[in-house]
Design goal:
Shape: globular
Helix content: 40-55%
Domain Integrase catalytic: 1-138
Distance between the termini: 32 Å
Structural class: alpha+beta
Protein name: Integrase catalytic domain-containing protein
GO molecular function: nucleic acid binding
Largest sheet: 2 strands, antiparallel
Length: 138
């Protein structure tokens, strides 16, 4: 994001469950925090729902392709799928979700006449609301 949030976050990591459309957001101070968030999310899904994560798809950014994450995926039996660089349409589900959350968040900030430093709160609120709406594909 252009400006740090009140909590000091600079990045939004958005995880989208392709089967349900459910989203989980993490506000990060550094991209290196992505690894712990991804591991935490995968373990939470597997424990709470008793379902195995079968694959993870990402754009190949360095923070998603660390040796530690590769080892974690291998240990958990998770296939890692990397999309084509600079071709956002190949990761359409995530890219569309990011655009939707950012648009909703910016609209909330604009209509509430809030400063840009509230972007993290607006994004997390947008995710919360979006997860409670019926999916458009039904």
């Amino acid at each position: 994001m252009e400006e740090n949030s009140l909590g000091g976050s600079k990045y939004l990591l958005l995880i989208v469950d392709e089967a349900s459309g459910c989203m989980k957001g993490f506000c990060l101070r550094a991209k290196s925090e992505s690894e712990d968030c991804i591991k935490t999310y995968i373990m939470m899904v597997q424990k709470q729902f008793g379902k195995k994560v079968k694959f993870v798809r990402h754009d190949g950014a360095r923070e998603f392709a660390t040796n530690s994450l590769k080892a974690f995926y291998e240990d958990e039996g998770i296939e890692q799928q990397t999309t084509v660089p600079y071709a956002h349409q190949t990761n359409g589900t995530a890219e569309r979700a990011i655009r939707t959350i950012v648009t909703i968040g910016r609209s909330m900030l604009h209509h509430a006449k809030l400063d840009k430093c509230f972007w993290a709160e607006a994004a997390m609120t947008a995710i919360y609301v979006k997860n409670r709406l019926p999916p458009s594909r039904v």
